[in-house]
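Tip: read the tokens left to right.
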């Protein structure tokens, strides 16, 4: 007889599976070496979005003048923002663990584990067995073997929220969603930010129009190098000039903040980058944030002792019921070969609970899965991009509406942003992409429409309250529907 009915590896989204199993009376083990809540609660979605509210507040003060409101930003306290954020979140995680410890049928193991065979893991030097295993061990920042990076004191999203000091200047390696969110935060708090991205635009996976618009806005705020691959990083004395390329000193934005008085003595890191044509640039900063993607934690789980297969990128292969290739082993969240979003992990959790705890055999349907980026402007998208449709040779029409043309956009004095709808000639919604104020909220009517097969003219034909920002989305649907 196995030691446990259900064993869950990872207390991020996995904590809810363990909770449900224990509540159902199954003897359950939850293995989590860190705080419960995993990446999202402790070092991902939650802290990043809490920090970004401080960035927005600072920018509201900076922008108050356009409403004839006399306001001056006297200063920002990054240490206090980060401290308050992490205190709150660590309290939530600790409270969760306290509550879980009280649960009958649940045993928490606070350590890393590895598989011994399909349903046996090593814990505390012992072999522990379970009837059913759920792998929810997540992902971690990808740190490519860039020359000199190993000898450099750099940050990743794992430790960025622990820092209580604001660097005078920051070079962010990467231009994906974590890079641009953190770049926006630091720039808004007064740090001179440079983003270095290999592709031709920031957020290159977004619809091309969205990526281009975002890159333009980001360039107007801080230094952005696109089309540049980072080749090496080195640490030098602060007064050593960047040579061997064009030095970018990161002082591109002068918004009058006192924090803009920089001393070159504090700039200690050089990031070397190169274009496809071999043109080199060197960027200086006193801190470096590596945001070059995430990798699944499968390499640390001893999967070679199991029948659990991974794909070429190291993600656990799962079927539509989230079953792995090993019997009675399921996987969910970032580590499974689906998307790497908390909302996807939560959706998968519901299905894992149904299948593992209640034996229902239900399938996931990951269609119309949205994604969002919480910079200013925000970005939100669902479905195909125009580049996807071009690549697949799909026939489509484009509907578009601009924020500044809407009543609420004018009232808010928004000078950029749009909603874009991509539709099949028969009216089927193929994709919707919004860049602008509160795009993350505005997108959701398109998500519902796409998920449930509501045609573009039906959304266009729905009365939207005036003068909401939602009317921008409606106008884009109307444009696509030709009405
Ligand atoms: C900076 C940042 C911002 C983000 N913002 C968003 C956002 O706005 N919206 C969004 O949808 N997503 C966001 N994400 C992604 C989101 O956080 C993840 O998709 C989600 O948290 C993944 O959940 P998970 O359960 O798969 O993994 P995790 O939450 O990472 O949980 C996995 C757990 O497994 C544990 N573990 C690992 N190896 C072992 C082992 N060998 N033994 C035992 N335990 C182990 C880890 O300690 C970890 O706690 C963000 C991520 C980051 C880094």
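Filled-in amino acids:
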């Amino acid at each position: 007889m196995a030691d446990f009915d259900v064993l869950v590896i990872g207390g991020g989204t996995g904590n809810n599976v363990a909770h449900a199993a224990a509540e159902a009376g199954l003897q359950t083990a939850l293995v989590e070496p860190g705080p419960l809540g995993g990446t999202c609660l402790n070092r991902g979605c939650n802290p990043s979005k809490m920090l970004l509210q401080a960035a927005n507040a600072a920018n509201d003060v900076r922008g108050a003048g356009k409403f004839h409101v006399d306001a001056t930003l006297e200063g920002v306290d990054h240490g206090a923002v980060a401290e308050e954020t992490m205190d709150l979140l660590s309290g939530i995680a600790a409270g969760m663990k306290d509550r879980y410890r009280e649960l009958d049928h649940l045993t928490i193991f606070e350590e890393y584990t590895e598989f011994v065979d399909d349903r046996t893991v090593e814990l505390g030097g012992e072999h522990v067995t379970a009837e059913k295993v759920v792998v929810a061990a997540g992902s971690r920042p990808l740190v490519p073997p860039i020359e000199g990076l190993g000898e450099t004191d750099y940050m990743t999203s794992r430790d960025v929220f622990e820092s209580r000091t604001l660097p005078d200047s920051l070079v962010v390696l990467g231009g994906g969603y974590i890079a641009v969110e953190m770049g926006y935060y630091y720039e808004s708090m007064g740090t001179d930010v440079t983003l270095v991205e290999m592709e031709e635009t920031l957020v290159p996976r977004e619809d091309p129009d969205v990526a281009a618009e975002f890159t333009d806005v980001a360039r107007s705020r801080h230094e952005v190098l696109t089309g540049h691959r980072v080749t090496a990083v080195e640490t030098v004395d602060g007064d050593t000039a960047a040579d061997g390329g064009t030095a970018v000193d990161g002082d591109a934005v002068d918004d009058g903040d006192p924090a803009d008085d920089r001393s070159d003595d504090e700039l200690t890191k050089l990031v070397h980058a190169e274009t496809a044509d071999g043109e080199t640039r060197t960027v200086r900063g006193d801190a470096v944030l590596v945001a070059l993607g995430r990798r699944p934690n499968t390499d640390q789980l001893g999967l070679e002792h199991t029948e659990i297969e991974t794909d070429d990128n190291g993600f656990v292969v799962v079927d539509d019921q989230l079953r792995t290739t090993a019997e009675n082993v399921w996987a969910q969240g970032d580590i499974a070969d689906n998307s790497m979003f908390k909302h996807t992990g939560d959706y998968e959790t519901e299905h894992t609970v149904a299948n593992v705890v209640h034996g229902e055999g239900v399938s996931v349907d990951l269609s119309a899965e949205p994604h969002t980026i919480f910079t200013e402007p925000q970005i939100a998208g669902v479905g195909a991009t125009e580049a996807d449709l071009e690549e697949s040779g799909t026939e489509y029409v484009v509907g578009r509406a601009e924020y500044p043309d809407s009543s609420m956009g004018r009232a808010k004095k928004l000078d950029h942003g749009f909603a874009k709808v991509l539709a099949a000639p028969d009216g089927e919604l193929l994709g919707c992409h919004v860049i602008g104020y509160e795009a993350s909220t505005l997108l959701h009517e398109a998500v519902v429409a796409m998920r449930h097969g509501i045609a573009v003219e039906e959304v266009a034909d729905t009365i939207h309250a005036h003068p909401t920002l939602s009317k921008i989305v409606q106008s884009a649907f109307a444009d696509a529907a030709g009405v």
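Residues 9-14, 31-34, 38-40, 44-45, 48, 112-113, 136-138, 157, 178, 297, 300-301, 333-335, 340-343, 345 surround flavin-adenine dinucleotide (CB under 6 Å). Residues 241-264 have pLDDT under 50 and may be disordered.
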